[in-house]
Amino acid sequence: MAYVFNAFAGDKPSVGELLSTRFPHFDAAVVSFTAGQEVVGEGDPTENFFLVIRGLFRAVKFTRDGRRQVFAFYMPGDICGLEPEATHKLSIEAVDRAAMAILPRPACRLQMDVDPRLNAALFEGATRALTLSIDHMLMIGRSSAEERLAWFLTMIRERVAPPFGENVVELAMQRQDIADYLGLTIETVSRTFTQFKERGLISLPRKRSVEILRPDALRRLAAADRDAQSIPYPEPARDLAAVAA
Amino acid sequence: MAYVFNAFAGDKPSVGELLSTRFPHFDAAVVSFTAGQEVVGEGDPTENFFLVIRGLFRAVKFTRDGRRQVFAFYMPGDICGLEPEATHKLSIEAVDRAAMAILPRPACRLQMDVDPRLNAALFEGATRALTLSIDHMLMIGRSSAEERLAWFLTMIRERVAPPFGENVVELAMQRQDIADYLGLTIETVSRTFTQFKERGLISLPRKRSVEILRPDALRRLAAADRDAQSIPYPEPARDLAAVAA
DNA sequence: CGGACGATTGAGTATACTCAAATGTTGTGG
DNA sequence: CCACAACATTTGAGTATACTCAATCGTCCG
Fold it and tell me: Which helix (H) or strand (E) holds A38?
């Protein structure tokens, strides 16, 4: 997940908390968006930071001929819009009906100068976002379709309810978003979902709802552990140590 | 270029300058490395920042089964090692005979608290690094082999001597590094080099030396402009406006 | 000169792609 | 509430791009 501040990730107070403390009226700047609506576009001046209040957003970039890459999904508690240049290099769009708190940059900067905690939190967050993007890039550059989808499902699951996640994950984004996030086509994503279903790794109660039946197997696939691919069905053992390793 | 501070990129004083000002004896901590030598490994504690003095370094990560992704190349003036977690998530290795200034983190942090300029420079740099990684990811996720290599050559050329670059670029890294940087195999990289040569886009005086004969054509390929692919040979016109657009 | 390594080239293949059609889902108006 | 339209997703068939495995070529050193 490139470019994401996760409210759960820090041992320090979360950026969201700090902001809501320092800007007691920040909810006055909350704006709602409908599905597909653009918050900022590529080339727009970077005037604000954004704190996700409700729903799901995505950060995207387009090539000139219309290909699209999704760089991140932002969930409630995440901050985005921290691009350093004068203009945004990514567009931020609402995936579904969602809401953002809009935080003017000058005010944030002033607070940063005054409050070392906010300062440190933002810096830590920015560098952590970089770390989070590493896995994403490794996946895109060096993994098969099934590894990418397994990684995606594992990551989403663990973000929704850390540290272990629920076994049923609601996917607010549509298949095209997943495809563009993973650097695949929508057809390949769909086929891989079907394949996972047939292998008993997941079930699909509804199209946008995934029940993860065998989280360990999925996690091993995601870790690019080639052995996992040769284990289609059994494997009842837990394997949490492997995650930490 | 993920994770890179480029000494040329900023309108502010470069991080390198600030560090050498604030740490007048930082050159006492300069360490030399031979080709392939590891500066820090994945999992090592994050005790220092690093400033490249001479030569070329790469940031890499391995999957469990040995696949490798190169995330960045660091040139003199670049800073690396700014990972926020307690341990490094990437390994940093010397590509050739190279040297790093080793900057203890606690000292840097102290200076950051005291000196808002250093602080701002590092923050700007960290977020800029994020922006720089965007193109890399877009390439890896959504481009063909020839687009990736065209982008790589264009980027290297412009980094070596901004803003336009020399027409002859010395590649200190070997083909495997390029392949792992672009998410391709070494064979595909090699074939694409050959193809570019046959199309008259480049020439290869030596294996590690690329002469860029048609920078505009290469740049258009890199920009994922599909029209460029249907223009194999002629095209004498300049096209700098397209870069800015 | 020979060995080691890096790079290129060749042949065949697999994975994910494209184009196309069918199916499923959602939302809207009658 | 149902029917229909619009859209999202799945499935199918064929193909292209980049991969794998293998051999050759070139270059740098000892």
Answer: strand A38-40
User: Are residues A141 and B90, on separate chains, in Cβ contact within 8 Å?
Assistant: no
Is A137–B134 a contact, with Cβ atoms under 8 angstroms apart?
no
Q: Which residues of A touch B126 (CB under 8 A)?
A: 123, 126-127, 130
For residue B64, what are the CA distances in angstroms to A138, A244, B40, B75? 12, 13, 18, 28
Terminal C-alpha separation, chain B: 20
Q: How far is the CA of B173 from the C1' of C5 (A)?
A: 14
A30 and A23 in contact (C-beta within 8 Å)?
no
Work out the burial of residue A86: count CB atoms within 10 Å of its CB; fewer than 13 is exposed, 13-18 middle, 19 or more buried.
exposed
Separation in Å: C22 C1' and B128 CA = 47
pTM: 0.85
* Amino acid present at A32: S
Task: Using alpha carbons, select from B123, B118, B49, B2 the residue that is nearest to residue A121.
Answer: B123
Distance from CA(A188) to C1'(D3), angstroms, rounded? 33
DSSP readout, A89-143?
SSEEEESSSEEEEEEEHHHHHHHHHH-HHHHHHHHHHHHHHHHHHHHHHHHHHH-
- Write the pLDDT tens digit of every residue in B2-36: 334 443 444 445 666 666 665 555 555 899 999 99
Contacts from B178-182 at CB under 8 Å and sequence distance 24+?
B178/B149, B178/B152, B180/A141, B180/B60, B180/B68, B180/B69, B180/B70, B181/B58, B181/B69, B181/B70, B181/B71, B181/B73, B181/B152, B182/A141, B182/B139, B182/B140, B182/B145, B182/B148, B182/B149, B182/B152
A171 three-state secondary structure: coil
In the sheet where B57-62 sits, what is the strand order?
A: B38-40, B91-94, B57-62, B68-74
Q: Would you tell me which residues have their CB within 7 A of strand D?
A: A 174-176, 186-187, 189-191, 193-194, 204, 207-208; B 144-146, 183-185, 187-188, 206-207
Strand D bases near protein CB (under 7 Å) are: 8-13, 17-22, 27-28
Q: Shortest CA distance to B120 belongs to which of A170, A232, A126?
A: A126
- Residue A98 tokens, joined: 């969602």
For residue range A56-112, list pLDDT tens digits in order: 999 999 998 989 999 999 998 888 888 878 899 999 999 999 999 998 988 888 888
Helix (H, G, I), strand (E, B) or coil at B157: helix
CB contacts of A69 in chain B (<8 Å) are: 137-138, 141-142
CB contact under 8 A, A123 and B126: yes
Q: How far apart are CA B240 and CA A44, in angstroms?
A: 22
Q: In angstroms, what CA-CA distances link B198 with B17, B156, B218?
A: 43, 21, 14
Q: How far is the CA of A92 from the C1' of C28 (A)?
A: 29
